[in-house]
Amino acid sequence: MKKYLALLALAAIGVSHASAQMLINGAGATFPFPIYSKWFDEYAKIDPSVRFNYQSIGSGGGQKQILAETVDFGASDGPMSDENLAKAPRKLLHIPTVAGADVVSYNLPGAPTLKLDGPTLAAIFLGTITKWNDPAITGQNPGTAIPDVDIVVVHRSDGSGTSYIWTDYLSKVSPEWKQKVGKGTSVSWPTGLGGKGNEGVSGQIKQTPGAIGYIELVYAKQNKLPFADIKNAAGVYITPSIESVTDALATAQIPDDYRFSITNAPGVASYPIASATWLLVYQQQSDPAKGKKLVEFLKWAFKDGEGMASTLLYAPLPDALRKRVLDTVDTIKY
Fold first, then answer.
1. Shortest CA distance to 26 belongs to which of 80, 78, 73?
2. pLDDT tens digit sequence for 279-291
3. Spatial CA neighbour of 231 closest among 146, 162, 173, 180
4. In which element (H, E) is residue 326 found?
5. How far is 80 from 87, CA to CA, in rounded Å?
6. Which one, 47, 72, 201, 232, has the greatest CB density within 10 A?
7. DSSP secondary-structure letter at 317?
8. Are residues 123 and 269 in the same domain?
């Protein structure tokens, strides 16, 4: 009987601990999902009283949910437009966390490393280049065996910050793309198949011979997919990497609200399809207890979590920017 009562007491303690654990909900970008998952897991060891539940639904969904206040924080790879930001019930902060690369991945025999420039990529995604052995592609890849097969374009089907980065880049390198399609988390795609999330696009590329699509670097690595070197604004073909994203980030002129773009960045070593990613957090928190825990997490992320970024192929924020962001986190009220 004593043993039974002891077990009941332990169970009661367990239930009490579980009920005391605070749940903070977030939703949005799939682009930073691997690093955010790592941060949430590691932070649970620092503060077991709080648990983060993050739904990787795409940046468009993250923006909608934080505006509706159905989550405690949102996440987006594209900064919100003035129009969307004006819908917020109170001041909404853009907090940059890390930077990463959109890579051009494909499914071709032998998985060659290709070289591609912006105008060629725009023409492929406009549907005007339809064959892999088109002179625009083979001319940039002399000596590489490229088959005479149809190109199958794969793009995101959901509202996506990865798409925002991609279309922002294409709008800068192709006047035709800018005029006909433009940039946004969701656009009217001229051609191609849709995939949900970076995961869905990766899957479509992997299972479709002749496919080409854009995904975040870590997803290409995880799925063992090849990716192209991309010609940058200085005319140099650059391999996507932590270093080349860091070089692009170093060129940024970053305003006080942190809404900035580093696609097609200047500099001979800059990877041209790179971007920061942002957490979307209300400056005045509606729930004081959750607000306090969220601020504590953010301070840990920028002091300790940034050191984990490179292991997952993200570029950490430069020290000067990290200090600015920590000062902004200090303005969050609860």
1. 73
2. 999 999 999 999 9
3. 173
4. helix 319-329
5. 11
6. 201
7. P
8. yes
